[in-house]
Every structure is written in structure tokens, then in C-alpha cells.
Specification:
The chain is α+β, with helices and mostly antiparallel strands and 144 residues long. It has three helices and seven strands; from the N terminus they run E-H-H-E-E-E-E-H-E-E. The strands form two sheets. Strands 1-5-4-3-2 form a five-stranded antiparallel beta sheet. A two-stranded antiparallel ribbon has the order 6-7. Helix 2 crosses helix 3 (95-120). It is globular, with a radius of gyration of 16 Å. The termini are far apart.
């Protein structure tokens, strides 16, 4: 059966959970950068809707669609808890493809967040990226 489902992550927007606006949360900009990087790497684009296989749209905070997954992967931030979840219709798609794409978004988010935190502590930051897909590796170095 086809329908858009929600998949939880470990990422939490504390500012939003505390009653703040999403656009004011520093993590929001990091998330947008992370999603944009994954979209560019796969020839995709950003929007604010995902669709099921029948074309019904579901609105979300941010969405990334790809040539290999046109329905898109949505990103939704719970305004009460600050928890980030992914929304997508997995019908007819390989779980590995979807886990790989969502994993890349999370990996990019984590890398950028760590780099920003190091910069705030006045470290000189260097990011090194090797491989692609499941073999992708990102190393963040900070030198004081």
C-alpha cells in the first residue's frame, strides 16, 4: 500500500522545543545546507512538499527530490519536541536507496554542525570527504 510515512532520527532542535521559531534556530540553517549538498550531489532539488506514488502532496518543512526518487524525502520538525523526522512514500523503492539518501542528509548535518561548533571555539576547521554512497566518509579536523 502506498502512503507517506514518518521515520524518526536522533536530531533534535532544542530551540524549537523551547518555543522558539524554526527559522531562528541555528540548526535550521545547518539542516538547509546539509539537504542542499545532498540535492546537488544527486542532481536533485529542494522544495516543501513530498508526494506519494499517486501524486498526492504532503507539506513539510523542507523536502529533497532526486531523479531516482522523484516523490522526494521530506523533513519535518515537531514543534513541541523539536525532533526531526523524515517523510516519504517507500512503496516500490529499495530500502537501501532511501536509507542511503536520508543517511547522507544526517551525515552532512552532523559534519556541518561539528565544523560550526569548532569554528565557534576558534579552531581552524578542515573538512575532508572521500568516497560516495555507503562508502562515503567525512572527516572534520579542528586545529587550535
Amino acid at each position: 500500500m502506498s502512503h507517506v510515512s514518518s521515520y524518526a532520527t536522533q536530531i533534535c532542535f532544542r530551540h524549537v522545543a523551547g518555543g522558539g521559531r524554526l527559522e531562528e534556530d541555528p540548526a535550521w540553517e545547518i539542516l538547509q545546507q546539509a539537504a542542499q549538498a545532498v540535492a546537488e550531489a544527486h542532481g536533485g532539488r529542494l522544495s516543501q512538499t513530498v508526494t506519494d506514488v499517486f501524486g498526492r502532496q504532503v507539506r513539510c518543512d523542507l523536502a529533497v527530490s532526486f531523479p531516482e526518487f522523484r516523490q522526494g524525502i521530506g523533513i519535518k520538525i515537531d514543534r513541541k519536541t523539536g525532533e526531526l523526522s523524515f517523510l516519504y512514500d517507500a512503496y516500490g523503492k529499495s530500502p537501501e536507496l532511501l536509507q542511503g539518501l536520508t543517511g547522507e542528509i544526517v551525515q552532512n548535518y552532523t559534519s556541518v554542525a561539528v565544523a560550526r561548533a569548532l569554528q565557534e571555539m576558534h579552531y581552524e576547521v578542515d573538512l575532508e570527504e572521500t568516497g560516495s554512497g555507503e562508502a562515503r566518509r567525512v572527516v572534520v579536523r579542528g586545529v587550535l
